[in-house]
Amino acid sequence: MIKILIVKMSSLGDIIHTFPAITDLVNHYKKQKIDVQIDWLVEEAFSQIIKWHPNVSNVIPIALRRWRKNISINSYKELKICIKTIRHNKYDVIIDAQGLFKSAVFSRLAAGKNSFGFDRMSARETIASYLYKHKISVTTKLHAILRIKQLFAKSFGYTYEEVIDYGLAKHTKPKTNKYIMFCHGTTWQSKHWPEKYWQELAKLCAQQKITVRIPCYNNIEKQRADSIASNANSKYIKVLEKMSLEKMKSILEKASLVIAVDTGLGHLAAALNTPTILLYSATDPSLTSPISKTHITMQHKLECSPCKKRVCIYKTQQQPAAACFDAVTPKNVLERITQLL
After folding, report:
1. pLDDT for residue 174
2. d(Cα 147, Cα 153) in Å, to the nearest integer?
3. Sheet of 212-214: strands edge to edge?
4. What tens digit of pLDDT does each residue of 161-211 get?
5. Given this model, what pLDDT does residue 321 score?
6. What pLDDT does 278 receive?
7. 269-296: average pLDDT
8. Which residues pair with residue 260 across a beta bridge?
9. DSSP string, 94-142
10. Which of 33, 115, 186, 258 is spaced 20 to 30 Å from 264 by Cα?
């Protein structure tokens, strides 16, 4: 039995990107008839996601986000328990798939014979590389999913498989319900498709009698979702209540189509083989989009694209949405919707 600890704390899309590497790793040891135990250190908000991959044995939750917001004696006690857990489980291999200083620190704190991570030219934060025993070079020009697959392959001594298997296929159900999803929420300002565009697309869908479901996970997303729905003023447009990621996964699985900005729910939908239209702006789909046969990307490139900046600065852009979204219009998106439905 080989015991492995994966450190990838967040976020939803990045976690989904790591699933194919886990599948490769397990297949590698299956060929050698060697059993593996894979534990995963992850932010508590995403702990249920890790359990979706059938080859992950144990999930170790960490709450850095919550602890930073509310530093207390209880936070210290929880941190101590977390560190004790990763030190108690003596691992054969510890691999940091995130490449940040915070993930590298916990990789270093874990008890294990060998720790692997990106080298200084490959890690997202250079300082992280100094905390690993073995530093792996992986070009930053490679797609994020393939970078992680290559990191695992070089760390464990195998050639990674070209096929992308998220380990979620057996959970996928037939798309029987006739509704589409608007996944509008994201963290960067530059990734937001204009709210007026969502409103117009909702109206166009209602006119076509296409049922739309709009999720929301915080007050800002709730306000935007309500605005989109109320502006359409149609029985075909419905705002969903806040729900667990487990329930959201089920809804995404059953959807006929998902329209999303560059956000975790969009990546999850594609990994679940749900037809997905991803609207890209500041980020590069050739490096960070899902890899699947069921998704397409839409992006209008400017000379500064992809800028990878959180706020659009194109010609002193003052609008709340990125300038490279200007040509990704609701009518253009509707054309793709009607083609895919």
Report:
1. 56
2. 10
3. 237-239, 212-214, 180-183, 257-261, 276-279, 295-298
4. 889 999 985 544 555 668 999 999 998 888 899 999 999 999 999 999 999
5. 65
6. 98
7. 94
8. 183, 278
9. EEESS--HHHHHHHHHS-EEEEEEE-TTTSSSGGGGGG-SEEE---TTS
10. 115
Helix (H) or strand (E) holding 180: strand 180-183
Question: How many alpha carbons fall within 13 Å on the CB side of residue 201?
Answer: 28
Domains and CATH numbers, the chain: 2-156 (3.40.50.2000), 172-340 (3.40.50.2000)
Compute and round to an integer the Cα radius of gyration of the chain: 21
- In terms of Cα–Cα distance, which of 339, 341, 259 is closest to 297? 259
pTM equals 0.92
What would the mean pLDDT of 113-124 be, rounded to a whole number?
A: 96
Token digits of residue 113: 């014979």
- Residue written as token pair 């450190």: 7
Structure-token pair, residue 276: 């997905």
- Altogether, the residues listed in the chain come to a count of 341
The rounded percent of the chain whose pLDDT value lies above 90 is 82
